[in-house]
Amino acid sequence: MSKSRSSHIKVSQSHISEKVEALPPSGIRKFFDLLSSIEGVISLGVGEPDFVTPWHICEAAIYSLEKGYTMYTSNKGMPELRAELAKHLDSRFGLTYDPDDEILITVGVSEGLDLAMRAILNPGDEVIMPDPCYVAYPASVSLAGGTPVQVPTNEENNFEIIADDIEPYITQRTKAILLGYPCNPTGAVLSKEELNQIAELAKRYNLLVISDEVYGQLVYGVEHTCLASLSGMRERTILLNGFSKAYAMTGWRIGYAAADREIVGAMTKIHQYTMLCASIMGQTAAIEALKAGDSEVEAMVRDYDRRRRVMVKGFRDIGLSCFEPKGAFYAFPSIKITCMTSEEFAEKLLMEEKVAVVPGSAFGKCGEGYIRCCYATSLPEIEEAIKRIGRFIQKYRKT
Amino acid sequence: MKKILEALEKDARLTPEQISAMTGTTVADVKKAIKKAEEDRVILKYKTVIDWAKSGEEQVWALVEVKVVPQRNVGFDAIAERVYRFPQARSVYLASGTYDLAVLVAGKTMQEVAVFVSEKLATLEAVQGTVTHFILKKYKEDGEILEGGEGVKRLPVTP
């Protein structure tokens, strides 16, 4: 019986979905295997703080475990954490969100991004985003059935995306704009005026804006503007943020989404079936971070700022053009004077000088010719890495 | 200025060139600021935090609580000076609470510390009494954890 059936049913050649097959592997991950086989490497390839989570935050989590807080939480996240977040968003940006149904605790911003895309996109809907951008942005749109549309940005314009750049890319199918500023990988920050113009554009074309502001607290000498705080933007912004970068809590995996209740409701629906809830331990730690973590964040920001200056000056001194990053903890120098592709450069640099950097091309076509270097690394290591890269540049510079 | 001091407090060996890069101040201005801070005694000295126990060198430390009678016009300052002039008194603080002066005393042997406390400190006229706590183990000194310094645990490449 089964034999005769199989003869007229078309048997699929692959067990993997076409959508996933079409997805390129993360350019960051690819590098990892190569790296782990070499010793004595200085890595500027990381994307997380070198600080350990402040002790009072860890201690609060340990205490909660001792008290037996090891269960599920509400799907939306612990009420106390949502209440603290509502307070935090109000005091920092004057934003009012109802902690009951306009804030959702997610497993890092990564989950928040995925939920946002799945909640808003119909097949074929387009989402506009800058190029280069964080590796997960195009993938999260594709996985949700949408089409990522990338708007080139460049060093000459400080890697900023402005309304005039975006407008030509808007079509009938455009559903949203996805922004991540301060930017991973470039360290670019958008000014309030630039954001206001993007906001006007979004209103004119009735677009949503997903704003990933996970690096919002890590800015140097400039003010971070929360997109949702701009006039008329609260109801069309999905604000994504988390604790990983500012509080050095990457491994705890706690993020949040704040938006209008209709959107948060839709995201919560997916979250409750796929994730259930974020870990209670991480949420407890996040409450402590919000209540008493500000002074540590300030101290870390001051520390990053010192290293940022050393790294940028270092790159310029060895002859690399390096845009001054105003946020996050990455420098994005140009390696075009070597005439190598950024992947070639990163691989050769790792083999010859044992310094790991991430090729800019991992973040989009416009990242080609650049490398991402994280300065959340100790100063002596930064100085040594610059020395090695300088030696490498001398050997290979073409112009 | 604060940025320069902060950098130096973390690492006294930083050169003016390094501090210039870290703070975005010119080398000349960094040098000028440091010189002024030294003259104003904002920077008192440049020292090294050493784990003497690990070096094999014997050292005995004690925290001595000292209860004193404050004196007219000079309060605690005069008696504090009598105490801090002894080189054995490595740190001297006026503290609130059940005693007045907190004195950190260092010596080569327990005997040496004991003699200093009983013969020099306790016999001062204004001193009403002392309580000596010998330090059994140092865990953290000037913000540095002495044992089991933890290496970086993050993966070399992360998103």
Word description of this protein:
The complex is a heterodimer of chains A (399) and B (159). Chain A is an alpha/beta fold. Chain A folds into 2 domains: 17-52 and 296-396, Aspartate Aminotransferase, domain 1 (Alpha-Beta Complex); 55-292, 3-Layer(aba) Sandwich (Aspartate Aminotransferase, domain 2). Helices cover 42% and strands 12% of the residues of chain A. Chain A has helices at residues 2-8, 18-22, 27-36, 55-66, 79-93, 108-120, 136-143, 163-166, 192-204, 261-274, 280-292, 294-317, 342-353, 379-396, and strands at residues 42-43, 103-106, 126-131, 147-152, 174-179, 208-212, 237-242, 255-258, 330-331, 355-356, 358-359, 371-374. In chain A, strands 2-8-7-6-5-3-4 form a 7-stranded mixed beta sheet, with helices on both faces. Chain A has a 3-stranded antiparallel beta sheet with strand order 9-12-11. In chain A, α7 (136-143) links the parallel β3 (126-131) and β4. In chain A, α6 runs parallel beside α7. Chain A is globular and about 60 Å long. The model of chain A has no long low-confidence stretch (mean pLDDT 94). By secondary structure, chain B is α+β, with helices and mostly antiparallel strands. Chain B has 2 domains: 2-39; 53-137, Lrp/AsnC effector binding domain/regulation of amino acid metabolism (RAM) domain (Alpha-Beta Plaits, 2-Layer Sandwich), CATH 3.30.70. Chain B contains 6 helices and 6 strands, in the order ααααβαββαβββ. Chain B has a 4-stranded antiparallel beta sheet with strand order 2-3-1-4. A two-stranded antiparallel ribbon of chain B has the order 5-6. In chain B, a hairpin with a 6-residue loop joins β2 (89-94) and β3. In chain B, α1 packs across α2 and α2 (16-23) packs across α3. Chain B is extended and about 60 Å long. The model of chain B has no long low-confidence stretch (mean pLDDT 91). The chains are: A alpha/beta (399), B alpha+beta (159).
